[in-house]
Amino acid sequence: MLDFGSILPRLLRIVGLLAVIPAFVCAEVQWSQPRQSVELPVGATEHVATYAFTNAGDQPATIIDVHVDCDCTTAAIHPLTYAHGESGELKLTLDTRGLEGEVERELLVKLRYGDGTSATVKNVALQLHASITPWFTFSPRVLFWSADETAAPRTLTVTLSATEHDDAQLVLGDIPADLNAELSATGPRTYQLTARPATPSDPGEWHLPLELHAADGSLLTTASVYVLVR
Q1: What InterPro entries has UniProt attached to this entry (predicted)?
Q2: Domain boundary among 132, 161, 182
């Protein structure tokens, strides 16, 4: 028969030890917002995210490596070593040129706690989610024909996002020789694109270029409509 009177003190000591462990493990660099989300407007060229932190541990913390998952992302931090109680910031710069929609980036920070043979190394993942408004949207995104059908003209709608360039004009770029295409305005920021393969019985794939120009004629951005015959 178990003698609970004899084992109770041991159980209490074990419970007390488990209660202390999380506080010990968490006594490291504390990040105020390790995952960040941001909404960026049309035409944004970059976004700088700032990750603030404090060394809550008793040992000095040294950032020994910072790894980003994309060439369009850079990280900057100085100094590299932080004593107990010291705070700092890590800045992550995302180059948003050519990006649109939902973008996820991760920054892996390698930290060393303490010095010498007693030092420990741990990794921390910082995330950035950016929702980037596109210059325009398409409905549908692809014009598709089967090779065994009569290729009647197909249309899609292009809608421009609201920007400071309300007088911008959307035009077709160089049309491939084996495509017929026309673009016409149907509203203040909407266009209808009509296209048809010149030889619909031949399978193929084309990119139909679109160019958005400001009122002064300067090029704002480009895009492509995908045309497929299968």
Answers
A1: DUF1573, Ig-like_fold
A2: 132
Look-up of token digits 């109770």? 8
Low-confidence ranges of the chain (pLDDT < 50): 1-2, 4, 7-26
Location of structure tokens 């492509």? 224
- Asked if 163 and 43 touch (Cβ cutoff 8 Å), the reply is yes
Q: What are phi and psi of 37, to 5 degrees?
A: -130, 145
pLDDT for residue 27: 63
Q: Is there a contact between 124 and 30 (Cβ–Cβ < 8 Å)? A: no
Dihedral in degrees, nearest 10, Cα atoms 210, 214, 219, 220: -80
> What is the token pair recorded at 133?
């408004």
Q: Are residues 163 and 69 both part of a single domain?
A: no
Q: Which domain holds residue 84?
A: 29-132
pLDDT of res. 25: 38
Give the pLDDT of residue 116: 83
Structural tokens at position 196:
């048809």
- At 53-86, the pLDDT tens digits run 999 999 999 999 999 988 888 998 888 999 999 9
Return the number of other C-beta atoms located less than 10 Å from residue 215's C-beta: 10
Rg of the chain on CA atoms, in Å: 29
Domain count, the chain: 2
* Residue bearing tokens 């020994």: 64
